[in-house]
């Protein structure tokens, strides 16, 4: 399995380099004077870059599958004289490592999620950034790679998955909550108390689904 992990790391070498750069320059945000126009421009550009990186790296298992060979990856690696269990564990470990490292480094920059506002009440219906990043990546395997970690489901692809998780799902949840509050004449201000329930509930579900999917794939090997 060691060689498989090394292979996976080599396939993500540019991601490692990028995260290393972000880690090194992260202290700069503490010394930048945001009162000057130049620093505001630099910080705004950095935020835009981080947003692009965070979007592209959400569901990074899809990009990893592309580097493995896309549709041919499962047929190729299944024919190799390596342990199927080692393949499974190496791929799961890779997903976990890059997810946690990515969430940790990106959270250093304090990117916040979109807020939905009703009058003067500001309620965040989405997860804290690092938690949402973890949850989206964890859900990617049960939804897109539920049979084998090297075989992507035909009905789902990277862009629709990311857009659905980052935009469509939060939007639908916000509409449902606002609609229910108006329909039942419920004080919108009290809904903020359900924020943590949704935030950590979504993360917990992703962990549960990932664990169940691993058990299912593990049993297929026996």
UniProtKB/TrEMBL annotation:
Is Transmembrane helix included in the keywords of this UniProt record? yes
The record's Pfam families line, in alphabetical order, gives: ABC2_membrane_5
Q: Write the record's keywords in alphabetical order, separated by commas.
A: Membrane, Transmembrane, Transmembrane helix
Transmembrane annotation, as ranges: 12-30, 42-64, 85-109, 129-146, 158-184, 196-216
Q: Where is the signal peptide?
A: none
| Record's protein name | Membrane protein
Give the species this sequence originates from: Staphylococcus ureilyticus (Staphylococcus cohnii subsp. urealyticus)
């Amino acid at each position: 399995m060691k060689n498989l992990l090394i292979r996976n790391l080599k396939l993500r070498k540019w991601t490692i380099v990028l995260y290393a750069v972000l880690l090194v320059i992260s202290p700069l945000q503490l010394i930048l004077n945001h009162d000057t126009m130049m620093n505001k421009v630099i910080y705004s550009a950095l935020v835009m870059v981080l947003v692009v990186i965070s979007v592209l790296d959400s569901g990074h298992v899809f990009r990893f599958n592309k580097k493995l060979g896309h549709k041919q990856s499962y047929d190729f690696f299944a024919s190799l004289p390596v342990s199927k269990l080692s393949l499974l564990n190496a791929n799961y470990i890779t997903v976990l490592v890059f997810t946690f490292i990515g969430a940790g480094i990106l959270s250093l920059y304090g990117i916040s999620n979109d807020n939905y506002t009703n009058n003067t009440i500001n309620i965040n219906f989405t997860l804290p950034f690092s938690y949402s990043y973890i949850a989206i990546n964890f859900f990617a395997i049960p939804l897109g790679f539920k049979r084998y970690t090297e075989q992507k489901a035909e009905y789902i692809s990277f862009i629709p998955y990311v857009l659905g998780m980052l935009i469509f799902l939060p939007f639908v949840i916000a509409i449902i909550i606002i609609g229910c509050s108006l329909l039942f004449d419920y004080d919108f201000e009290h809904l903020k108390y359900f924020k943590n329930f949704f935030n950590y509930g979504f993360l917990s579900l992703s962990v549960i689904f990932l664990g169940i999917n691993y058990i299912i794939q593990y049993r297929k090997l026996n």
